[in-house]
Amino acid sequence: xxTILNVIWLVLCGFWMFLGYLAAGLLLCITIIGIPFGVxxxxxxxxxxxxxxxxxxxxxxxGGASFVGNVLWLILAGWWLALGHIVTGIALAxTIIGIPxxxxxxxxxxxxxxxxxxxxxxxxxxxAAR
Length: 130
Description:
By secondary structure, the protein is mainly alpha-helical. It is built from four helices and two strands. Helix 1 packs across helix 3. It starts with a helix and ends in an 8-residue tail after the last strand.
């Protein structure tokens, strides 16, 4: 089932959201200071490309640097990417088939706003990252 949802997701909105994260990552990687932000954008972009079968878990070993990184991310790229998820989620929620995809889009909003201190793992082993 998750493969079917991933294929439908990829066609309807996954590829376009991936391109948004790719553009944000490339813009953020222009400076040396922005490279960690670009890497986070690429990591979330791959998750946005194929989200079903994966989940986001909090890393409990993250510290104050991840908080500062999240604040900077929110200012630099988080708002725009979250806005993209909101718009595509609302557009997908119009049809019955698109409702699970809209829910997945809305689940991506928190990680698109604050990606540091989070890890993307398979749903089969959510505690393997610890």
